[in-house]
Sequence to fold (976 residues):
Amino acid sequence: MNRNGIAASLAVTVGVVLLAVGMGRVASVHGQPSRIEFPHEKHAAVFPDCTACHGEVFDRAAPAIPTPEQCASCHDGDVQARVRWTPRAAPRPTNRRFTHRAHLRAALTKTPGDSTALGICASCHVTSGDGRMAVRRTVLGQCLGCHGVTVAHLEAQPEACATCHLRLVDATTLSTEEIRAFPKPAFHDAPDFLLGGHGRLARTGVALGSGAIAANCATCHSRDLCLSCHVNAPESNVIQALALDARVPVRTAPMPTPPTHGSENWVRSHQRDARRPRATCSTCHARESCLTCHRGTPPPAVTILAVREQGRAVGASPVRARPTNHTWEFSIRHAGEASARPRSCENCHARESCLTCHRPENAGAGAYHPRGFISQHPSAAYARQAGCADCHNTAQFCQSCHQRAGLVATGRLGAKGYHDAFRGFSLGHGQAARQSLESCVGCHVERDCTACHSAVGGGYRFSPHGPGFDAERLRRKNSSFCIACHGTAIPRR
Amino acid sequence: MIGSLLPAALGAQAFRARIDASTQRVTYRGLVADSIARALAVDDGSGSYFSPDGFRLRCSTDSQCYFFRPGALIRAMPAMASGALTAWGFGVPGLSLRASGRVATDFGADEAVPTIGPFAQLLEGYLEFQRKDLRLRGGRQLIASRLEPIGFDGAAASMRFPDRAAEVGAYAGWGLDRASILPVTDPALDPLDEWRPRRRQVVAGLEGAWSHRYLDLRAEYRREVDPEDHHFVSERSTVSATGNWRDLRTTAGVDYNHVEGRFGSSDLTVTYVRREHALSAGVRRYRPYFSLWTLWGAFSPVGYDAQFATAQVAATPWFSLRGRAEHFAFDDAEISTGLVPALRDDGWRLSAGASARLPRHVTIDGSVTLDRGPGASSHSAELGVDLAPIERVALSLHAGVLHRPLELRYFDAADRWLGARVEWAMRDDRRLWAEVSTIGQERRRPDAGGTRYDQVRLRAGIALTLGNSADRAPLPPAVRPMR
Fold:
């Protein structure tokens, strides 16, 4: 075996030994049937009765342990070799609700004629079938049997725990390490235990009328553990039934995500669940959880959640994710959805988000157009890829810029020959004008057109009206519109 | 402007403010109309005339020939600062003040950037009173709706009926011009000295919305009236709907122009969305709209119908592909002359791209676009890289090429650009950014009018967010954090 192998073996060995020592210590704390260091079997002949050493057990609150002087009466170096024995100064840390005196009194009160409880030490300290001096601290099964618990210790009914155990906050002699080493009941491993299951079990205490929380919870836990996860701890009578106790280890592992949250439609559908009367959002979520995404006007379901503060868990911290329907071209087609259901947008977007683009130029304007758009814009504008006039005032934006660039018209169409790639453009401009009049307006004003298309003022009287033109309707809506070209002699047709 | 609002803000218990400032340096070259005597024109033998220095001429019946020559270099340096303020806690639950404004100027010699003036402008400024089922607003406000955004100085009210998942609202006031925060009477909106109304139009509208688990419906009616002669400036209404069923989302909407008595722009899109892919297809109709204080509506502009489809596929968790195709065809303009050929009246647009997310917050994105239509076309390709080299610093690099032929004028353009942007989020509420890009542009013409000019564009800005509202303040300490 090489050096590394030896080191690894040593490490494993030391670890196993330490673990064994620790387990033994833990077992002694929690009443497992561990052996006692004192070799009772060797002294069977010397002590025919337990009372020789533990005679005051029913008269004292603390266990009656022999003193070194009592041992030295035999182990004096002459009769027997001396032994080193120092009884512990304080009682052994425990969460048991037990003294021999109280136990005897209670037993006599409950069953006055039951002789088995009257000072027969072996009934509790010796496993059935073992010899008289095969003494153990406690034979747990016999405790459970007398108290009517027919299942395993950690599977006892919730109310049964308090029969023998103090609430954790009252077990003041236990250290954090000893509490951390509490054995975990098997039902804590149930699939739904973390997400809802433990709450149902905790509330059984209410149903059983034994308090606001199940007694078995209070045996091992304090409110501090609940505060690891429960944002709504102050509003929960069940949690408030537990006292605070800083010794109790808190949960540091991340909580599992509820199965409902993993569905593809969760972002879209969670609002319905949140609005339900029995929604459990407040268990894990503070208002700040929602504000991660709900930057706009928060919906009512958000406002009823508590804000982060002392006495509550921080709560789940979601990561803001882009909704699945916000695909790459969503900026192109978002108008339809936004106009049909603005409330949906408001859940995530503040009004300022929209106004970044949907507002005339401001310093924080977003980059709606792709890079290089300044060169591309003639084609996008001419074919109306998007409604330019929705965001850009034609006169202030298009005309003023084209004016600086020398692109605006300065007279009747065709005189200067700007559209030189289309021979005869003056004659054939009609199609271009009707297809993209909004582009024409970027460089031309009305008088450029009315020079030929007006019925008054010396024009050529070329009619500009084309398909779908409802003259009568327009005259009714705004007769000034007609007067501009026809004067008061508006033709009726 | 922001300073004038501060006293109100100071009286509030909570406020939130944002300040943006940016400036850039831009140079470009325009055109200058010029002419020479017809006697100086040179005939190339094919019927085309050129100036002695090679410019193609348009010679009409008079004694002059006209042409455009490249103008002098125009330099602009616009600078702009805008601020937005929201304040509440005035002692009246639900009452808040919202305002935004900007100051802008051009430090360049030529003041060549549009929409810079006037120097100070109020974008919005209104008081809002909001209760569970009621919202009232008074002051200058912008309404973004399907009938294009509109601003006005007036009042708006809306009521919600949560039990019926419905909402109704109304607004009225003195309107601002289209896509502007200035009234139509403002000289800044009339650079070419066009005819303008003498008084601001009165705008009024009604809105209604109904929401269901599977369907959202919204309708709006809006009219604008010239208060001088009480004629309509516009009168339109719209209905839009969104439906959700499983992974299908349908969006539809239609506008109706009461003045013209016909439907306006409309669209229908069906989208199938899954986590790993999204497909959508639809049809849309675009119809231009002009206010009645202009004469443009009399020229009977025609719209077009388009069919489109898009697809996005996440081939792997880090790599995705996307594409879009659209075909459109204009309505018959009902104009024909045997003297000149007809122009195109249809076109298509294609785009495709791919994006890869690599470790260490590196994203590479590339795309190509082909746009072929009447009047002008373009095709381009672009590549960008986004990365976060250190915490709170984002860096992006981009490069692209574009070619754009025109149909009605010899002025094709070929562009190449290369740029970088760096953004430093010093804190959650303070952000600095800067951009630099070089653009090489070649304008091609079959005469001396072809020019080339390259330029460097520099932009820089800062964004500050101030406030003491709950979402701005540091979170209070919790009992124990979850790890």
In short: Residues 254 and 414 of chain A are 74 Å apart (CA to CA). The mean pLDDT of chain A is 78. Chain A touches chain B through 132 residues (CB under 8 Å).
